[in-house]
Specification:
There is one protein chain. The chain is mainly α and 294 residues long. It has one domain (2-293). 82% of the residues lie in helices and 0% in strands. The protein is built from 14 helices and no strands. It has helices at residues 2-30, 35-51, 55-59, 63-89, 93-101, 103-115, 121-138, 147-170, 175-197, 206-231, 236-242, 245-257, 264-280, 282-293. 48% of the residues are buried.
């Protein structure tokens, strides 16, 4: 069991790295093609790819499970449309990753208000810390939040709601089937909205196809498959702690990839959001540390 846990930890670290690198792939892609066309193509390709691994599960779904999957996909699609606009306008991907990570902090409070779910004290304590950090990021321009910051925050709010619906649906059906359907719905939504709002390029360039395929197959499909497998080898508490690494990796890789730099105010704001992530999952952190010491 201990070996399985170590294997899961290593795989989840790889998952966070894939998630972080996916931000770079996506930024490169939206420099080549319209953002909604990209997000639609990316998720539809990933959804179809995952569907190949879950054909039996998909065939066995009942109408209620299809409806639940579609609901997750529509909410996820809306959040991804906001996210890609944030990415398109963003000048600092690391900052965007930390703002988006607030989604995990919002899950417990939103669950409480909608479903009266139990909320730990640490969840409530994390909220003000996260929003102080967010406020500092907004103060960078004299408390005139950038367009990208607002898009990322909107995406985080909808992502938190997606997590809740996804968790409730996953209890009743195959995780890979649910993921394949929801990703496909994101793709269909993105392409349909893009067809009505964006001007599509007349031809696909080699670099456009390269970044799209890397984003769809490596940054999305492979990441979700690996994450689903790794989470099956460990407890949710271990997985939750390691996933905190994603915005940190994103900031570090963006600094190398795009030569991004953060101001002192941005560093403090992002550090507070990181602290909020740890506070939010403090009970999981304690369990994880205890497991590592055995």
């Amino acid at each position: 069991m201990h070996n399985h846990s170590l294997k899961a930890d290593a795989l989840l670290i790889i998952v966070t790295l894939l998630s972080a690198v996916s931000w770079m792939f996506s930024k490169e892609a939206v420099n080549e093609m319209p953002p909604l066309l990209f997000i639609g193509s990316r998720f539809l390709l990933a959804g179809v790819f995952l569907a190949l691994f879950s054909q039996r599960s998909l065939i066995g779904l009942n109408p209620k499970q299809w409806i639940a999957s579609a609901q997750v996909g529509i909410l996820f699609g809306t959040s991804m449309c906001l996210w890609i606009f944030g990415l398109f306008h963003a000048e600092n991907l690391g900052e965007g990753a930390f703002i988006t990570s607030i989604a995990s902090i919002l899950v417990a409070p939103i669950s409480y208000f909608i479903f009266k779910s139990k909320v730990e004290k640490s969840n409530w304590l994390a909220l003000p810390v996260a929003f102080i950090g967010l406020g500092l990021l907004g103060l960078e321009n004299g408390f005139h939040p950038e367009k990208s910051q607002l898009f990322f925050l909107g995406a985080a709010i909808l992502l938190s709601m997606t997590f809740i619906l996804n968790g409730r649906a996953a209890v009743r059906m195959s995780a890979t089937a649910l993921t394949a359907i929801s990703l496909s719905f994101v793709g269909i939504m993105g392409i349909l909205i893009s067809a009505n709002m964006e001007t599509w390029p007349e031809a696909a360039t080699g670099s456009m196809v390269q970044w799209l395929l890397l984003s769809a197959l490596v940054g999305t499909a492979a990441r979700f498959l690996l994450q689903t497998y790794a989470q099956g080898l460990t407890t949710p508490s271990h997985a939750a702690v390691i996933m905190i690494l994603e915005p940190i990796w994103t900031a570090l890789i963006a600094a190398f990839w795009f030569n991004e730099k953060m101001s002192e105010l941005q560093l403090v704001g992002c550090s507070l959001i990181c602290a909020a992530l740890l506070i939010n999952r403090w009970s999981n952190v304690r369990v994880w540390l205890k497991g590592r010491s055995i």
